[in-house]
Write a structure and sequence with these properties.
3 domains
Length: about 280
């Protein structure tokens, strides 16, 4: 008589074998390691004897905390700090909009291009007695928001050099920050091709090109690469492609933790720029 084959099913806690629950070895003390193995498709070591299944909820909560710690790396921290800047801009611009209505009699100070300069200018303005105190309080509060925005920008510029030293040196710290914010992480950026880096930040235009057949975008945030904006619009695509290819190399080096000799990369970009500038002047 043939022996009946045993039935096994992998569960989060171990195996369900022939109707019995057999736990992973040291489940309650090694659950983070065990959950990580399962997540990667690996079956952890099984204990020899059946056991009582523990409560899943507290284990998942602790595992979630560990996952957050692992994924909240230095580059992710910078990205989240960076996202504060547009929120501060919204608040500053909203206060500015309301304040220009409250202070229409101050000639030459309602400069829409420089809200923070506008708030600074209010400190020496002569207001009516009934409005002087509140306008002073509002302008000082808005000024502190402007100061905070500047401090965050300085912090980001200092930190990005430590995370992306090669890219910051080649493309500039501001563009390096933009690339990180759009790319999701340094690891993601390091896996991108030059062509992907070239249009990073131009996803809407790229989607419109795919759907509607419009002209494809020539560049995304890489438009901020030094010297690129000074070229004729029709010449920028070629130079952006060359710059993106060199940035792809620096990103991989940043991810690997190595420092490149950037001179050959700079020369390739410079040659491409000079060629377009020469053609444009002829």
């Amino acid at each position: 008589m043939e022996k009946k084959a045993s039935k096994e099913e992998v569960k989060w806690y171990g195996l369900l074998k022939d109707g019995r629950n057999i736990l992973f070895k040291d489940l309650e003390s090694r659950y983070i390691e065990i959950f990580s193995s399962l997540r990667n498709g690996k079956v952890p070591e099984i204990s020899e004897d059946p056991g009582k299944i523990p409560d899943l909820k507290p284990l998942l909560i602790e595992y979630g905390k560990e996952r957050i710690k692992e994924e909240f790396t230095r580059d992710q921290y910078l990205r989240r700090v960076y996202y504060l800047i547009p929120e501060l801009n919204k608040s500053i611009n909203l206060i500015f909009e309301k304040m220009t209505v409250l202070t229409p009699f101050i000639e030459g100070k309602n400069n829409a291009n420089d809200p923070c300069g506008f708030f600074r200018s209010l400190s020496g303005a002569d207001f009516p007695e009934y409005s002087r105190k509140i306008i002073s309080e509002i302008s000082e509060t808005a000024g502190r928001l402007c100061s905070l925005k500047s401090q965050i920008a300085d912090f980001l510029r200092g930190e990005i050099v430590g995370i992306m030293p090669n890219t910051s040196a080649l493309a500039g710290v501001d563009l390096a920050i933009e690339l990180l914010s759009k790319g999701g992480s340094l690891e993601n950026l390091s896996k991108m091709s030059g062509s992907s880096i070239q249009v990073l930040g131009a996803e809407k235009a790229l989607f419109k090109h795919i759907v509607s057949g419009t002209l494809p975008p020539k560049h995304g945030v890489i438009f901020r690469f030094p010297g690129l904006s000074s070229l004729r619009p029709k010449d920028r695509g070629r130079v952006a492609r060359v710059a993106a290819n060199q940035i792809a190399l620096t990103l991989r080096a940043d991810m690997a933790g190595t420092i490149l000799d950037l001179q050959p990369l700079r020369e390739k970009i410079a040659i491409s720029m000079k060629k377009k500038q020469y053609q444009g002047s002829s």
